[in-house]
Amino acid sequence: MIRAAAIVAFAATVAGVSAAPVPPPSEKELLAKYWGKTEGQGEFELAGKQLTMRTGGVPARGLLYGKGSNMPRATRPVTGDFEVTVKLGDAAPPNPKNRHEDSWPGSRAGLLVSGGGYGIEFHLYQYHQKRNGDVLDTLDRVVWVDTWFPGGGAGSSLVQVPVGKSTHLRITRKDKTVSVSHSFDGKEWSAPHTPRQDLAFPDEVAVGVFYAHSTYQIAAATFDELTITKPKELPKAEPKALPK
Known about the structure:
The protein is mainly beta. The chain has a single domain, classed as Jelly Rolls (Sandwich), CATH 2.60.120.200. It has 2 helices and 15 strands. Strands 1-4-14-6-7-10-11 form a 7-stranded antiparallel beta sheet, with no helix packed on it. It has a 6-stranded antiparallel beta sheet with strand order 2-3-15-5-12-13, with helices on one face. The N and C termini lie far apart (about 95 Å). This is Beta-xylosidase C-terminal Concanavalin A-like domain-containing protein.
């Protein structure tokens, strides 16, 4: 009887150990799960699955600077064709009175793809132009796409962004062609725009979100609803009936 009681007590102890609660995942583990590898100079904060990036009070330089890029970013490796979409919520515009690098005060928040010396930054670009060396008070807000390649780069403005609108951004790679599109409601999307035909990305690239800033202010941008999927197949056209 004594031996049987000891066995029962031991079994209860083992059961109690195995039933110990598993500690919840850390914020670093959740960042990696939802957004990927975090890099750059800044802070990363999660609220549910929503990601806020915060610059560190120094210019946050983008892909243009190569190995000198220090902008906060979160990326994951993707192989083959893909479609990456994100919703950009709040993104702090540049303070026109703040000390800055580059031609004028500016901030860029959005999606990036990089690999093999090539890159795309597709983003909300907010900036103050200059006139005779003086920074203008007017804030320009545009959807902008930059492409980077060995030996150079190019950029273009696609559309003005209304104040108070969330900006949805999408980059698609299909059959080695990379295109971008945007939406202000997440439902109606612009026609795909191909910024360049000669972006020779390798099969595996880094895909994710970033926040670049040319000023010395501390600023934040918030991202949500990140998805990375395979591109949707377009419906095949029905064969036309031959004339009788």
